[in-house]
Amino acid sequence: MASEVQADNAIRFYESRSYNYDDTWHVDFTKRFISLITVEPGHNVLDLACGTGLLTFLESEAVGPTGHVIGVDVTPGMLNIAAHKKRQAGNKYENVSFLQGDISHLDRIQGLEGKTFDVITVASALVLFPDPKAVIEHWAQYLKPGGILALDSTHPRNLVSGMVLERTARRLNLAVPYNREWSQSESTLKNVVESAGLEVEKVVTCENQAGYGKRFHDVDTWDDHFVENVIMKDVTRTFATNEIRKQAQGIFKEEWERLSVDGKVEEVDAVFLAIARKSADGSRYISTSANKDIVFTGGCRCGSVQYKCTAQPSELTFCHCRTCQQVSGSAFLPFIEVPTESLEFTSTMTLKKLVLSSKSDRSFCTGCGAPISMIFRSNPEETSLTMSSVDQDSFKGTMPKVKKHIYLEEKAPWMVLPEDGASRSQRVELLNTSDT
């Protein structure tokens, strides 16, 4: 049932876009997409969510007369344009076929029975599906042993008003035709693909997808973005009544403002593109990272920043430096240390780096202000996490105990140190007061 709803949403979302789709940034992006993958003469290629055939026709030229390309899309308008382009080209694309159907149910599409492919491509479509792992597992069944899957997902700040709209709809328990929240980094895309049983050969970040690079919106322009995305576009059906739109407007403003830093909301024109391979014997790939147990998870108060860690942390260090006092609003910050390679941020929408010295980089959530981490530039292999950001219910093993108090020469005068048996240092060797 969920897939049928998703397919219906996709049709509504893209049908009206069919007729000017080839006038958008998708033309240039599909050229970049195919330049990053290997499509050889004689290959059989399956192009999923093919739209108007932008990538399909490029693949047709790559496979030549001895190969074949099948493009599949659920939107009739898109396929009508693709078919028209094929007819206009005469015999040039005789090795191309187009099929209509839901790409999350390839088994229901007549014309794909019993077929497997050397290459499967999915451009600008993965974030349309609520369960990316499940659809990738489904698509992998149509790969030949040793076959390649290439697909992309959005940067968390790509088309930022759309992300805010998604969060707004989620809070109102309304459906939107895309599901981008999970796509946070190259590593999150890699993990999703490998959890579906394919070995990722590389993940790259494609900058300037639509050509604007990076830009900043004034925080008080939230209403313009709300009107553009909710009132003027097809998702107005999602916010169907005046009452719902009024609620959505307030939530949209709140979520938009949570993303702002110094009165600006950053937008990043980038996507992550992964190239993965099915094993030569057709067996399911099991990544080494998948075998690592998660020791604990954590994040900020508002939930916009989330992480997981596969290593046991150090004991606790209470830092009493003036900087930690000021960024926390308290007498100290409690830190644990973990190997940086064991830490993965799974949600970074509001994660912001804070540079207050030349020696270390801190991070915090711009949504709720929670301090998250600190890394000393002299030791990037270790990351210090604020203990208050750890989800204690997720913790496996023995909870860390207080091992030391540092920077006591800057201790708040109203703070009374407990008799906890921890070591005490007036400062930290190799660092001075302004270095933290």
Keywords:
Rossmann fold; metal ion binding; 27% strand; 10 helices; globular; CENP-V/GFA; disordered C terminus; 7-stranded mixed beta sheet
As laid out across the biggest beta sheet, the strand order is 16-17-18-19-14-13-20-21
Unreliable runs, pLDDT <50, ≥5 residues?
430-435
Within CATH, the superfamily of the largest domain carries the name Vaccinia Virus protein VP39
Strand content: 25-35%
Total beta strand runs: 21
Task: Note the gap between the termini.
Answer: 53 Å
Sketch the major β-sheet.
Answer: 8 strands, mixed
CATH architecture of the largest domain: 3-Layer(aba) Sandwich
Helix percentage range: 25-40%
Rg estimate, integer Å: 25 Å
InterPro entries: CENP-V/GFA (IPR006913), Methyltranfer_dom (IPR025714), Mss4-like_sf (IPR011057), SAM-dependent_MTases_sf (IPR029063)
Family: Belongs to the Gfa family.
Pfam family, one: Methyltransf_31
Keywords: Metal-binding, Zinc
